[in-house]
Amino acid sequence: MKFQSFTSKTLFAHKEYTKILKIPENALDNVDDIVLKKEWYETLYKEANKNKIILMSTPFSVEAVDDMDKYVPIYKIASCDIDNIPLLRKVASTKKPVILSTGLATNKDIKNALNILKNNEVALLHCSVEYPTPLENARLNRIVVMNKLFKKNIIGYSDHTIGIDAPIIAYTLGAKIIEKHFTITPEKKSGDHIISLDTNSMKEMISKLKDTNKMLGGNDALKNEKKMSKQEKKELVYAKRGIYLNHSMLKNEVITEKDLITLRPCVGISAKDYDKVVGKKLKLDKKSFTALSTSDLKK
């Protein structure tokens, strides 16, 4: 579970920010009303531990790192701060694992950040900073590219689309971490609520991710040789074909292609050894539509 750690004073230059967005100067006056209060940290930490939940923080300032450091084992860096050198250095100094969003980053930006965080274990999240992200701007194939470019890093996906389809697709493309916003008031459409999942939809997403993992087959499916299930192995006998005589034949007769037919089940010589049977002599009389075995043939 991840929280954001910021204050309006450490996030905005109020006058310039409101000017560039062309919004009233007092538009940010209530930002601190939604700030995670410092006095809550201890309670959140204890509740997370009690429920075996990993607590994480996205710090938006150097001060926030100091405030949260004793409570969190992992840091998340937002897309907007991927080139915030002071913050990156502060987080790097903790030597803790870092999840780094790359929504506003070039490959060079990512490499520069990784260089600062070279002593930290870093996971990279593909994302878009559009809220909500139009489906055509999700660009999920970027996950494939990032897995090729940054092989030493775990690649994940931070989703800002509406619904749960994008995270499922992202997982199939190689995302090992899925970040999705959560709300207890889905009826609200302002801010992050429209892209967030409520309890039921979050459970649905997690369930579908687990089902997707089963269908992908895990690491076994990535091996060069296909691994068959126990049931498939059982079905081999009656699903595959064996070699049968299509009419009765006598001892010492030479078998030709006209004498053979491939049928289920494969209880004798497999159809894949068809060419090894043609031209052989029978050791004994054989009735029609009986399976051939190696013991029936002369060498």
From TrEMBL:
GO terms for biological process: carbohydrate biosynthetic process. This is Spore coat polysaccharide biosynthesis protein E. Residues 242-299 form the AFP-like domain. InterPro entries: AFP_Neu5c_C_sf, Aldolase_TIM, PseI-like, PseI/NeuA/B-like_N, SAF, SAF_AFP_Neu5Ac, SAF_PseI/NeuA/NeuB. It comes from the Bacteria. It comes from Brachyspira pilosicoli B2904. GO terms for molecular function: N-acylneuraminate-9-phosphate synthase activity.
